[in-house]
Each structure stands twice: as structure tokens, then as C-alpha cells.
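pls design
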């Protein structure tokens, strides 16, 4: 089964939502974990999470992260993926529903479940500032002097474009990974 591609030169995350057949939750989860173990050996694989349903009969969520769309496409085209998905068909109820995330939308995208809540806004704002401050400071120190002959709005457009690109594909993926325990902790909201 193929999934839609999105143009992305940086990390991508794919969320697959699917029900297990009645009484097959344990088998479904074991097969998904086996698939994760094999995927770990594929180039560009960054990690994966299995989020079980919060109540019987609801959807499992599988989040897989790759360094690029090309890495995800390679996994999708592999014989290994086809074999794992054939195994999943025996214990799954229907086809998966896929959602691809990249760039800004993937910064804080954590599937919501009973035990995994999206980060609160003040934590997202604090982490965003922690990424923006050094990024903009670096750009103002290194790049801005090189653009001094350009009009103010052009300089501002170049600096902000570089800041968005760096934040989206370099800074925030690392910060979110580093601060994930703090972002998802609910007792300090």
C-alpha cells in the first residue's frame, strides 16, 4: 500500500492509524515492534513510536520518522516493508489511514492519547524562543553584515527566510527530541 508523498528535504514523520481485529491487539503490537526493529537498520530512519488505543476497539497509532522523504520512500518501496505489512493484514481490521508531517507542523506533533498529551502552549513558546534566539543572533552576527548594501526589507526577508529554514530543518527537530520528556510531562503544566 502506498502513501502520499510530500516534498521535503528535511525530516518527515508519518502517522498511520489502524484498528486491530478484535482480540488481536497483542499480536498487532508485536508485529509493529518487529517492524520497528527491522526499520532501525534502514538509512535515514530516526525513530518510531507505537501508541496503543486508549480503549478497546479504537485505533492504534504508529509514528515513524525519517531524515528525508527519500528515506521514507526507500522504506516504502522495500521488500521488508511489504512483508511486515502482509503480516499486519492478518491481524488488522482494514487499511491504515496515513498522515505525513514535515517542516513546521512536525515540530510539536505528538499524537494525543490518554497518556500522551500535546505540549502546553507556554512550553512550546519557551522551546521556540530557545531555538529562535541563538539562530537569529547567529544570522545577525554572520549574515547581516554581508547584506548591508541591500535595502532594509530585502535584508529582513533574507534573514527571516534563513531563520525559518534553519528552525524547521536543523534547530527544532533536535530541540524537540532533546526536550521531549519535559514537553510531555503533565505534572508541571
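designed seq:
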Amino acid at each position: 500500500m502506498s502513501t502520499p508523498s510530500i516534498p521535503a528535504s528535511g525530516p518527515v514523520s508519518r502517522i498511520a492509524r489502524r484498528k486491530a481485529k478484535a482480540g488481536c491487539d497483542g499480536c498487532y503490537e508485536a508485529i509493529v515492534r518487529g517492524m520497528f526493529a527491522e526499520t532501525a537498520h534502514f538509512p535515514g530512519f530516526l525513530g518510531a513510536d507505537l501508541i496503543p488505543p486508549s480503549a478497546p476497539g479504537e485505533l492504534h497509532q504508529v509514528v515513524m520518522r525519517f531524515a528525508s522523504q527519500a528515506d521514507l520512500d526507500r522504506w516504502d518501496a522495500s521488500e521488508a516493508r511489504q512483508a511486515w505489512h502482509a503480516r499486519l493484514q492478518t491481524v488488522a481490521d482494514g487499511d491504515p489511514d496515513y498522515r505525513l508531517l514535515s517542516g513546521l507542523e512536525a515540530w510539536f506533533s505528538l499524537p494525543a492519547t490518554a497518556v500522551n498529551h500535546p505540549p502546553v502552549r507556554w512550553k512550546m513558546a519557551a522551546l521556540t524562543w530557545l531555538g529562535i534566539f541563538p539562530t537569529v543572533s547567529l544570522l545577525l552576527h554572520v549574515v547581516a553584515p554581508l547584506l548591508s548594501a541591500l535595502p532594509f526589507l530585502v535584508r529582513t526577508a533574507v534573514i527571516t527566510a534563513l531563520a525559518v529554514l534553519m528552525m524547521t530543518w536543523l534547530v527544532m527537530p533536535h530541540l524537540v527530541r532533546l526536550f521531549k520528556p519535559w514537553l510531555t510531562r503533565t505534572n508541571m503544566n
